[in-house]
Amino acid sequence: SNARAAARSTTDRQVQLEDHTLQARGDNGPHIPEGIEACIGNTPLFKIKSLSEATGCEILAKAEFLNGAGGSPKDRVALSMIQLAEEEGLLTPHAGDVVYEGTVGSTGISLATLCRARGYLAHICMPNDQATEKSDLLLKLGAEVERLRPAPIVDQNQFVNKARARAEEHTADSSRPGRGFFADQFENGANWRAHFTGTGPEIYRQTGGRVDAFVAGAGTGGTISGVALYLKPRLPDMKVVLADPQGSGLFNRVKYGVMFDPKEREGTRRRHQVDTIVEGIGINRVTQNFEAGRDLVDDAVRVNDEQAKAMARWLVEKDGIFVGSSSSVNCVAAVRTALELGPGHRVVTILCDSGARHLSKFWAKAGSIGGKANTKLEDVLNV
Ligand code: PMP
User: 256 Cβ partners below 8 Å, 6+ apart?
Assistant: First the structure.
């Protein structure tokens, strides 16, 4: 019929046009990723429209929650650590080797996923005060999970120390098949190098090399160090800003060169624990991954829990973006940085993971947006 002929000629023309556009973009036809590991990296960078409008700057978000394996930037890190261990002959697939790690969750989920993909087992030690979604997910992935009472780093029951000890026990036990490998995300240089070779170059390419500030929190420090080490030599005028939750010592490390506020009275709080609802960022000790890029961090912004919760609600209300607590802290610090730089600047930050991983803890406290519509930026910043 005429209608069908017209439709066919319209679609034919459209296909021609789209092929042309794809070629112009350098897209050379179909590309099927080889397994879930090949879906790690190359995450989108998009503009957060509401925050850009409210600040007069461009606030851009690297959507790391879209990483293909475990849904966080830790996919890059887990793959990098496993690949290095394989190259060094410390891990052999399908030989009974077990990867041990101390993590608050994201790294464990990425490791557990990749261990399945590559023929290892994962044994995860984590504090027992984190959102239960994460340990539930780890168990579904078939990882062994040890949830431990929060303890200072000098305590042998602290989760990182426990993971290291478990790996050593395994290797020493001749009755067990395979070896134990301690991944050690806090001190392992394969962590920051994953961001130096992945996240950093991607941001550079996606922005055409125009970035006025990069803002990120630090849990191990791998992200902020790796991205800063890549971008700073290329963009010497770009500011690197640490987004630090309340109770974390890194703010003072950047501002004053010490971990703890010298004005603070000794013994006023338990210093080994970062006293915040935020998970994944903020730390009260110096890690090799943070130190790798520390000289390149220009400034730090402290974000309290109320601001983090208000920003999380804002992002849902205005943009339909549902993220976890560390992403929310990053966005508060990105807005503060934008307001300091003034209109017309471009600020890049990271959205680390989905709010779905934080329903039972952070989002249970953050509430919903019901009855709280029409938030203003001051409502987020001045709480
Ligand atoms: N967000 C979340 C949810 C995390 O789990 C982590 C890592 N612990 C980070 C942010 C911080 O990343 P990094 O370890 O690279 O500093």
Answer: 262
